[in-house]
Every structure is written in C-alpha cells, then in structure tokens.
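chain below, 364 aa
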Amino acid sequence: MTKIVNVTIDGQTVQAEEGQTILEVAQAANIHIPTLCYHRDLTPTGNCRICVVEVEKQRFLQASCVFPVMEGMVVHTDSERVIKSRRKTLELMLANHPQDCLVCDSSGSCDLQDLAYEYQVSVPAWGAKGARYEADSDPNPFVRVDFNKCILCRRCVLACNEIQCRDVWGVAYRGFDEQIVAGADVVMLDARCESCGQCAAYCPTGALSDKMSHGLGRAHQVTKVTTTCSYCGVGCQFDLNVKDGRIIGVTSNPDAPVNGMALCVKGRYGYDYVHHPDRLARPQVRQYLLDGRPKVKGDQWVEVDWETALEIAAVKLREIRDVHGPDTIGVLTSAKCTNEENYLMQKFARQVIGTNNVDHCARL
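prediction:
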C-alpha cells in the first residue's frame, strides 16, 4: 500500500505519495519550478541545476527533479538563495552559449532563452567564450547539429536511449571539453542513427534542430495544425508547421494519444510530397475509358472527378469478374491503411468479387 506523506511547499501543505519527487509534487499542486534537463518522458538526471530548491534541514540546495519527498518536509522554491543559484547557473550557461538569438531558428521556442528572460539574466561581465564548434557539422540529411548551443542537458542522450532505443548519443571528454558525441565521436549515420529526429524534438535549445526547416520560419511565425500521419495505419499525430500556406516543418505533439513525442523518419521529415509539383491532386484515367472504345497507342491520361473514376473502376471489375471469373482478380492492401480499412478490403474481395486472392504489402 502506498504511503501518503505531508509536505509543505512555499507555505502550502500538500499530500503526496512517498517516493515522488519534489518537482512532481509541486507540479501537481500548480507550483512552478523551472527546468531544463527534465522532461516528463525521460528519466530525471538532475544535472542542469535549474530546478534546485531549498529544503529545510538540508545543507545544500537540492535538485527537485530527483529529490524524493518525506513526511514533514518543508520546501522553498523561490527563496533568495534559490533565485541567486538559478541566476548564477544561467549566467554560466550563457557564457558558453552563442549570442545569436537574433538569427537563431529556435528563438521563441528555446527554454534557455525563456529562463534568461524570466530571471533577467544576461551574458556575465567577464564575457562569453564564443563559438567552439563548427555549425551544421554533421552530414546527415535531417538533423542540424550546432553544439555551440548545447547546454549538456543530456535530453538527446536519454531520448535516443530510452525512447528510440538506438544509443546513438553519448557524452565524451571531461571538464570544459565535455561534449555530446554520436557513437565514438563519429557522424550520426555511422553511429546507427535512423534519422527519427527524436533528439531534435527533445533538445531545449538550438543545438539539435530540423535541417529541412532551418531558416524557413520561427515558432511565432507559423501556424500549427494537428493532423494524423498518412504513412501507415498506426495513427501517429503531429503538428504541421504552416507558413504562408505552405508546410515548412513538422513538430511533435506531446499530447498525441498514440505516439506522444515519438515519430519515425517518414512522419517527421516526409512532408515535402505535399507541395511536390509531380503530386497528383485529382484522379486520372485513360482517354479510351471515357470514350468507351478500345485502347489505342498514345491514349493520354485525363483528370476526372472521383465519382467518374470510381464508376469506371467498378464497371471494369464487374466486367472482368463476369466474363473471366472472380479468381482472375486479385486485391492488394497496404500497411498505410488502418486495420479497419484492410478488413473492409478483404470483405470486398470475398463477398463482392468472390475471390480469396487477397494479399498485403507487409506480409513476409
């Protein structure tokens, strides 16, 4: 049986389950504690030190994302000591961070930028270190890498390990030289990356971002339209980023019921077909089918409405079944369809056409 404990946070007494962290209890009580390395989908690590709080009878400030509550605990989330620590931590991060917010794609959707604004922190007087790494240094086609903007929160490491189970990202070197690396400090594709973009989705800054949408628009310039992926029948949802009537990118929707933040490479980066000039916008049939005459060489494709196209297909299927028999027809279904749609297709084959010639693209 779960033990219930009483905890006081900023003067508010709340009840919590033993083993919950201070951050979890505070969030449930609508008490704001800022975070950077923490994400609800990932194992908390407590390494960014932004979420520190003051716990009475504790000598040091504690990272609220990993510190468990206990009976009678008294916590202060915004004491002078806490605010001073957070501001100093942010100053140290900004000292090792490029000062290019004016031209950064992540401006407006950067957690570090938001916290610097919230705590009114700027680059420390002793100056910034400047760029240390080459921007867009990895040749992979989808993820833009700029480790000058990395704050070593390790979200990318955890997302790749715990959600995608690929273990592409890790931490190498020590001290000031510590950095995130792919594999044994190789390029991403050589480290077994499958280009899902999960690391970029969880990155709180612009260190990892989407290469295809780089330079096309910032968060406040796009309209987000939640939709369902059309590539398979799983039903993953995500947000289309639309600017000036065109899709310029895809971002994860954390409230998606099927997939949450997770997407495959096709779902996250396979959106450019929407505006491709070769995409068929309407059904097409050969001219001889409209004329009701035999096929001749050179018959052109003609755009028609859906009712006309479906009527022609129905007439031809009926004609072939009646003249040559139902087993001269085969029905192929697709993994891009839902289970319900595939079920209807096999019912159509067996009950309407009268054949058991049904196959599926996912059959091994």
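DSSP finds nine helices and 16 strands in the chain. The longest helix spans residues 306-324.
thats it, cya
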